[in-house]
What does this fold into?
Amino acid sequence: MINPFEDTIERLEELTVHCGNEHVRFSKQDLDLLSKPRRTLVVNFPVKMSDGSLKIINGYRVQYNDARGPTKGGIRFHPDVDLDEVKALALWMALKTAVLDLPFGGAKGGITINPKEMNQEDIESISRAFMRQIHHFVGASKDIPAPDVYTNAQVMAWMLDEYEKIKGRKEPGMITGKPIELGGSAGRDIATSLGGAYVLKEIAREYKLSDSPSVAIQGFGNAGMNMAKILKDWGYKIIAVSDSKGGVYSEEGLDVDNLINVKSSTGSVTNIEAKKITNSEILELVVDVLVPAALGGQITSENAENIKAKVVIELANGPVTREADKILHKNNIVVAPDILANAGGVTVSYFEWVQNNSDETWEKDVIFTKLEKKMIQAFQRVHELAVNIGSDHRTAAYILAINRIIDAEKKGVSQ
Ligand code: GLU
It folds into this structure.
């Protein structure tokens, strides 16, 4: 298993070959500023469970870099969460907010639990107890959490309520991705997918994809499901999808509405009538567009040579490893990197935070217009840079982000 943090630090080291290029504003030494997180909080806390037992829960909050603003990033609940994963995710958030030019740094949190095996009461108790552990570390102008893998608006609501009870005041801007009733933003639920779809639209134009491109989506959580819905509406053909139980495939295209109904009533897309495929087979299908929308480390040096898609849109964080990237690039596969492709989520989180801080409520169409503009602008900057330095899009996105972070570091540090 590749360590995602070490893999990312090696990616940073590999960027040094570009130092000295007219488009690169940092030196090898400047990169040291990004080699370690600014602050790391590790907590182990007891929670009384609904069966009466007392369980020790472990959790993390890593604030990777705050040169460009308060740190920002989600909290994930997953049995595989560990410190190195959270550190990698926090670093990617710092890069992501910089690629989109949002006034934020990057952070991430995680709790090592499997919420799929827990009742709502226990998930609520753990969410509230975690906030009691981290409340002094977060805040609207300090560090702003949001949903991530296996967390949602309800979890954000419990955390916000706990935070406000401790502080004795309202502070909706301390967390984003919360329910609309508590100050959440219209469109935040589909923002990650819509942002990815806007990037895909640009790529489809730039690289001249066919009129009704075929798509395979790995993962049918919030991001994967909404991506299927949006792309179907835009005339794409969704030929395969999967979730943690496996996948389904149809050459003629799957019925997306039926998939959503069956997923919500039975818990898995595999319960529709269609040919079954595995989660690794879905990655290797002959398609125009592959959308990894589940977990990290899916395309590695083991299977990268088997990828046949023309374009990969990374809706998940970290689905392609460093070595796999090189193979995909060699095979002329265009990869829209996570720090660009899935940045729609944090971009609408930013809009939510602005609305909270200015007591405003924006309409959905205003939000989507702003989101589209931000995503297209970021794609164009990344694409231009990739063409100028002759690199893949991830390398260009990293350089664009690090230029901005290092500029802020240099301007902000007192002598
Ligand atoms: N968890 C999401 C991400 O990885 C959203 C973060 C946010 O909205 O702050 O980008």
Notes: The radius of gyration is 20 Å. The chain has a mean pLDDT of 97. The domain at 191-341 is CATH 3.40.50.720 (Rossmann fold). The first strand starts at residue 39 and ends at 48.
